[in-house]
């Protein structure tokens, strides 16, 4: 398969810009502190994953997989901006932050690279196979390696990009059972539940959260006289108001799942959102932000 045709197929899920650029960033989004942003650009899509895998091209035709905390952003750029202008600015900024540029290429010399954008966004064929750029940079540091990939192309005359930041770290073990919940509640009156995750910027509980919710239900069933508060917590990406509202919706979703799926009486469970007002770690690292994104259950 020709590289250009392959590119179009793999880059088939980004936001297609058929209307004027958004006047402001989407709610809950924020630039990644390792990267920053091009002046005048706007965040059109944003997602974070506590732990995931990403495919990166370190050389033309050479793709490797890394795992860690993943942040993806898509940007739209001012009308007068060129691809080369954005690329050179990103390269200079990354090098200034200690990154090594391992690959910087265009459609003529990128080769058959499997760009890691196919699962991000929701509109077809945003990329122009005859006009695109790709940059991949990496940095080693005391907190582990970090990788940044930048893919840019043009859609209807507008420059768009996907920026993917992967911070390598070991996967945190998140499983907890009813006995451990009992122990934590007995010792401190609260328990942090990291096995409950949500779609980015949503209160939709992901399917992989079911085992942790089941253990919460088992604990509550074994302690029928106990009343609790379910509290949602976020990291500091986005405004205070946004995160307070989002964490409140997430806490309500957990209480609803316990009532609907496991028959726990709703009257036993209050729920509230704390946003980023009660961090348990710094928000300046991926690991710290992951610790701050949590659900807690507190004995009343």
UniProtKB/TrEMBL annotation:
Reply yes or no: does the keyword Signal apply.
Answer: yes
Keyword check for Membrane? yes
* Ranges where the OmpA-like domain occurs: 185-300
Q: Name one GO cellular component term.
A: cell outer membrane
What is the residue range of the signal peptide feature?
Answer: 1-23
Q: Which UniProt keywords are listed?
A: Cell outer membrane, Membrane, Signal
Q: Where in the cell is it found?
A: Cell outer membrane
Which chain regions cross the lipid bilayer? Answer: none
Q: Which domain of life is it from?
A: Bacteria
This protein's name: OmpA family protein
Naturally occurring in which organism (per UniProt): Rhodophyticola porphyridii
According to the entry, what is the taxonomic lineage of the organism?
A: Bacteria, Pseudomonadati, Pseudomonadota, Alphaproteobacteria, Rhodobacterales
């Amino acid at each position: 398969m020709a590289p250009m045709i392959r590119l179009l197929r793999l880059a088939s899920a980004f936001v297609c810009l058929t209307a004027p650029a958004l006047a402001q960033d989407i709610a809950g989004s924020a630039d990644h502190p390792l990267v920053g942003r091009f002046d005048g650009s706007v965040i059109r899509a944003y997602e974070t994953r506590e732990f995931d895998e990403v495919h990166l091209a370190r050389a033309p035709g050479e793709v490797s997989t890394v795992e860690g905390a993943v942040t993806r952003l898509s940007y739209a750029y001012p009308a007068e901006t060129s691809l080369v202008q954005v690329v050179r600015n990103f390269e200079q900024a990354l090098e200034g932050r200690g990154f090594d540029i391992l690959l910087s290429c265009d459609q003529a010399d990128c080769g058959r690279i499997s760009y890691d954008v196919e699962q991000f966004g929701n509109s077809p064929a945003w990329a122009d196979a005859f006009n695109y750029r790709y940059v991949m940079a990496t940095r080693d540091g005391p907190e582990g390696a970090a990788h940044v990939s930048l893919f840019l192309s043009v859609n209807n005359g507008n420059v768009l990009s996907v920026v993917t930041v992967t911070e390598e770290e070991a996967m945190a073990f998140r499983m907890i059972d009813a006995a451990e919940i009992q122990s934590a509640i007995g010792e401190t009156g609260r328990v942090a539940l990291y096995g409950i995750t949500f779609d980015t910027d949503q209160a939709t509980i992901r399917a992989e959260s079911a085992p942790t919710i089941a253990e919460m239900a088992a604990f509550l069933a074994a302690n029928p006289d106990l009343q609790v508060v379910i509290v949602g917590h976020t990291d500091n990406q986005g405004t205070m108001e946004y995160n307070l509202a989002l964490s409140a919706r997430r806490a309500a979703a957990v209480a609803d799942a316990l009532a609907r799926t496991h028959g726990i009486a709703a009257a036993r469970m209050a729920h509230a959102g704390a946003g980023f007002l009660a961090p348990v770690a710094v928000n300046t690292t991926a690991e710290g932000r992951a610790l701050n994104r949590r659900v807690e259950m507190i004995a009343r």
